């Protein structure tokens, strides 16, 4: 999502609607309601992973060599990857570990990394954006140049290098969270800086400055409430990006290490089993797709609910937008000339 869509055409941040109006606009979008229900279900499953695995009676790291056929290279015994009453989604090839247990525990890792990284990115971006906008000319120049450099860096290459040299004593989920957060704050910083620069020229901010308020008191009381709408919208859109980033790192073999499960790591292991055990590949890939799609739909819905003008801008040129436009009235002189001719 482009950061330009989070501000109005004049460069001034659109005011956020009231809480009731926001929720009414959000509930009016059926796709957002369905996506939110799916995502809440995924979060509940991730939080209840120990309870669900205890109900199934399986452990995510327990090996079951008797459930795979060693003669065929470790293919699960039974239909659909070994699905049974004891193993609800089957077992992994070669190891025989329960697939349902590893998927629900992998959801905790993938979603947890994405959420915590997003919180850190937003905190860093808001702090640096306000510092650039309110800290004076030199602060603005320094933060702007650092932001431009961070945005131009090849993130994947730097991430691979940092993960390669990082000490093994740091837990891998914590390390990946910090790296994703440390390399992805610049988008929020740009939004906050642009919004704060336009807001601080308004009359109520000038009045607060003349009343003797300090810089950070103005930022806390006048700027941050007005910047909440674009920051929240961008934060919601950051979550699926971070989910994909964690899955990509695990898929490349430098992310979450076994025996800790994650969806990206499961996709890496399933890369050679897509013909013999297709469910081992389709389940984590399908859940990853559903998670990213639901979060993207929610982010679009939040953006539209906070700024309805964005929805009208997106409809320009479409069939729905053309139907909603009122026909132009003809001038009386022109209509009389047409009748006379």
TrEMBL record:
Compositional bias annotation for Basic residues: 320-334
Keywords: Cell membrane, Membrane, Transmembrane, Transmembrane helix, Transport
Topological category with respect to the lipid bilayer: Multi-pass membrane protein
Transmembrane segments: 31-52, 109-134, 146-168, 174-192, 231-256, 276-299
Organism superkingdom: Bacteria
UniProt xrefs under InterPro entries: BP-dependent_transpt_permease (IPR050366), MetI-like (IPR000515), MetI-like_sf (IPR035906), OppC_N (IPR025966)
Keyword Transcription regulation applies: no
Principal location: membrane
Localization terms from the record: Cell membrane
Region ranges (Disordered): 320-341
CDD domains tied to this protein: TM_PBP2
Tagged with keyword Oxidoreductase: no
Family matches, as Pfam families: BPD_transp_1, OppC_N
Assigned protein family: Belongs to the binding-protein-dependent transport system permease family.
Name under which the protein is recorded: Peptide ABC transporter permease
Species of the source: Streptomyces violascens
């Amino acid at each position: 999502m482009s950061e330009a869509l989070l501000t109005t055409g004049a460069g001034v941040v659109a005011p956020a609607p009231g809480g009731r109006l926001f929720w009414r606009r959000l509930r009016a979008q059926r796709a957002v309601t369905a996506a939110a229900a799916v995502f809440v279900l995924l979060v509940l499953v991730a939080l209840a992973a120990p309870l669900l695995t205890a109900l199934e009676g399986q452990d995510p790291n327990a090996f079951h060599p008797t459930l795979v056929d060693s003669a065929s290279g470790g293919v699960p015994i039974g239909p659909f990857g070994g699905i049974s009453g004891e193993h609800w989604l089957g077992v992994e090839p070669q190891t025989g570990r329960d697939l349902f247990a590893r998927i629900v525990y992998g959801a905790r890792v993938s979603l947890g990394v994405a959420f915590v990284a997003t919180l850190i990115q937003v905190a860093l971006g808001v702090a640096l954006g306000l510092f650039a906008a309110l800290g004076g000319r030199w602060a603005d120049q320094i933060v702007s140049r650092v932001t431009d450099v961070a945005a131009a860096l090849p993130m994947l290459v730097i991430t691979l290098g940092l993960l390669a040299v990082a000490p093994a004593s740091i837990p891998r989920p914590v390390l990946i969270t910090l790296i994703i957060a440390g390399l992805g704050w610049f988008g929020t910083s740009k939004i906050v800086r642009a919004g704060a620069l336009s807001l601080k020229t308004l009359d109520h901010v000038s009045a607060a400055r003349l009343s003797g308020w300090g810089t950070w008191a103005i930022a806390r009381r006048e700027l941050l409430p007005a910047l909440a709408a674009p920051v929240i919208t961008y934060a919601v859109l950051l979550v699926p990006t971070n989910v994909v980033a964690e899955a990509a790192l695990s898929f490349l073999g430098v992310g979450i290490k076994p025996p800790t499960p994650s969806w990206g790591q499961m996709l890496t292991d399933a890369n050679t089993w897509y013909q013999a055990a297709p469910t081992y590949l389709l389940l984590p890939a399908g859940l990853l797709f559903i998670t990213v799609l639901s979060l993207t739909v929610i982010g679009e819905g939040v953006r539209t609910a906070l700024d309805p003008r964005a929805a009208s801008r997106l409809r320009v040129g479409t069939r729905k937008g053309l139907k909603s436009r009122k026909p132009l009235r003809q001038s009386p002189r022109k209509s009389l000339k047409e009748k006379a001719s």
